[in-house]
Amino acid sequence: MKHLRTFSLLCLVFICILPMAACSNQPSTIRVAEVTRSIFYAPQYVALEKGYFTEEGLNVDLKTTWGGDKTMTALLSNGADVALVGSETSIYVHARGASDPVINFAQLTQTDGTFLVAREAQPDFEWDDLKDSTFLGQRKGGMPQMVGEFVLKEKGIDPQTDLNLIQNVEFANIPNAFASGTGDYVQLFEPTASIFEQEGKGHIVASFGTESGHVPYTVFMARSSYLNENEKDMEKFTNALYKAQQWVQSNSAKEIAEVIKPYFEDTDLQLIEQVVDRYKSQGSYAENPILDEEEWKNLKAIMDSSGELPKDVAHETLVNTSIAEKIMND
C-alpha cells in the first residue's frame, strides 16, 4: 500500500511537471512594428520566410504601423516589443526625457533608401538642374527629408532659397501628388520610383543613398527595460537577422526577390528583383547588425544640418552593440 501511494504521488508530480516542461519549449513571441512595408527591408523578410527566427525558437508577430510617429507610439505604449524605424526617432524620444530610453541594437539598412525622380527624362542630369524647380520632398523631421536636404546642401543647393520646396504632403500621398502634376522633382522610395519609370510618370536621375554615405537609416530598437529583461531572446532575434543578412549578401537579387515575394503580392517579381539589385549595388543592406560610431556621427551631422538635432547624444547612450558583437563572435 505504501509503495502504491508513493507511485501515485510520483505520477501526480509527473503530471504536474509535464505541462510546465511543454510550456517552457514554446517559442517566445516578439511583436515587431515596422515603419512601412518596403523592399528596402528585404533581410527582415528573408529571416521570416527562411525560418531563421523559428530556428532560434522565436515567433515574430510582424505588423506595419505606417509612419515613424505611429511606430514609436506602438513601442512606447507597449503595443510592440521591437520597432524597425529610423534611428533619429530614438534621439527624439531621448530628448523628451524618457525614463525608459529606446535603444538601437541591430541595424538593417545603412544608406538612405530614396531616389530623385524627375518628371522628364534627363540623361545628362546635373544637381544644378534642381535650382529654381519645384521639389516635392518628404515629411519634415524624418530621415528621408533630412538626408535629402543634406545631399542638396553638399551639392551647393540651398533647399530653402534655391528651389520651391514642398513638405506639407503626407508620406503616403507623395507619389499620388507627383503623379497628379505637383512638382518637377520628387524624392521617392522603391518600388514606387521604378513603377513610375515603367509607367512613364517619372525618371530616376539620382540616388540619395549613394550620395549621403553610410547612416543608420533603419534599425531594430527596443525599450531599455525590454532589452534587459529579454536578453536571451534579443540575442536569438539578432542572430536570426544576421543569418539573413549573410544570406542576402551571398545570393543574387533574383533569389532574394523569389524569397520575399509573399510580402509584396501585388508587385511583379521582375520589378522586385530590379529594386533589390539597385539596393544591393549601392550597399543599402547592412552586412551585419552593428551600428558603429562613425555611422552614428553621420546621422547626427545630417540631423544637425537640417536643424533637427535636439541635443548631442553619445553613441553609447542610445546604441547597444554588445548583442550583435556577441552573436558575431560565437
TrEMBL record:
The keyword Acyltransferase does not apply. It is found in: Periplasm. Keywords: Signal. Pfam families: NMT1_2. Residues 1-21 form the signal peptide. Its main location: periplasm. Gene3D superfamilies: Periplasmic binding protein-like II (3.40.190.10). PANTHER family: ALIPHATIC SULFONATES-BINDING PROTEIN-RELATED (PTHR30024), TAURINE-BINDING PERIPLASMIC PROTEIN (PTHR30024:SF47). Belongs to the bacterial solute-binding protein SsuA/TauA family. This is ABC transporter substrate-binding protein. It comes from Pontibacillus salicampi. The lineage of its organism: Bacteria, Bacillati, Bacillota, Bacilli, Bacillales.
